[in-house]
Structure formats: C-alpha cells, structure tokens
Design brief:
The protein is mainly alpha-helical. 67% of the residues lie in helices and 0% in strands. Helix 1 packs across helix 2, helix 1 packs across helix 3 and helix 5 runs antiparallel to helix 6.
Length: 140
C-alpha cells in the first residue's frame, strides 16, 4: 500500500463512481435535450457508450480518488463540439444531481454535486468563450 497517496477528495469507491456514471448516462440518453446531442455524437451503439462511460468514470476517479486513469482534455472536447449550447449545462447538472441523490447518501451526493457544479461552470465558460468572436473588443 502506498502510504504517500492522497486521500480521496470525497470518500467514495470506484464502484460507486461507475454506478453513478452508468445511471447518469441512462438518463441522458432519454433526455429530450441532451439525448439527441449525445446520440448524435456517440450513436446508439452500446459498445461506444460502454467505452464513453468508462472514460468518464476514469475522469471522476481521477478527480475524486486521485487515480491516474484518465487521459484527456474535457475543456477542449466540450468547447470543440459546436452543438453544445452553454444552457445545456444547467440540464446536465440537474440530471447529474438527480442521479447523485438517487444513488448516494445525501452527504456524499452533496460533496460530489459541489465538485460537479464547479467543473460544470468551467466547462460552460469554455464553451461560451469558444463561441465568442475573436478580435479586439468593440468599444462604442
């Protein structure tokens, strides 16, 4: 056992993270706003979804458990998808909060929700910034 490892940011298990991610994306697929976006990008192929869910579970395991299993750039990915509207993050976070509430004790759900909302604000800002026109500001 590595005695120098950082303690988890939130006392969750890898299995809890994977369960939340799986149930969250089940909700996403049937959501009237997010479902078409995700299916348009990922398709309806269960294997593609399994790979995506594993990647997102790795992201959360990195953020929460300090694992080194995720290699990616969420800001670049989200800001590069033109179909993502900044307003979609409100719906995304509401579905995520609902999943957390259903799957975890309330104290753990609140801690993870706080982290998710902080990350969501950053991603939303990145998407908004990517949509802005470049060049000098118009000062009239």
């Amino acid at each position: 056992m590595n005695t120098h490892a950082l303690p988890p940011r939130i006392p969750l298990t890898r299995r809890q993270i994977e369960t939340v991610v799986k149930h969250f994306y089940a909700r996403v697929r049937v959501d009237k706003t997010l479902g078409p976006l995700f299916i348009g990008i990922l398709s309806n192929d269960p294997e593609i979804w399994r790979v995506h869910e594993a990647k997102i579970a790795n992201f959360w395991a990195n953020a929460i458990l300090h694992e080194r299993s995720y290699d990616g750039n969420p800001m670049l990915v989200h800001s590069g998808i033109s179909a993502i509207e900044p307003s979609m993050f409100t719906n995304w976070l509401a579905l995520f909060d609902q999943t957390l509430s259903d799957e975890l004790p309330s104290d753990l759900a609140l801690q993870w929700s706080t982290l998710a909302h902080r990350i969501g604000r950053g991603l939303r800002f990145g998407v908004e910034s990517a949509r802005e026109t470049s060049g000098p500001p118009i000062l009239r």
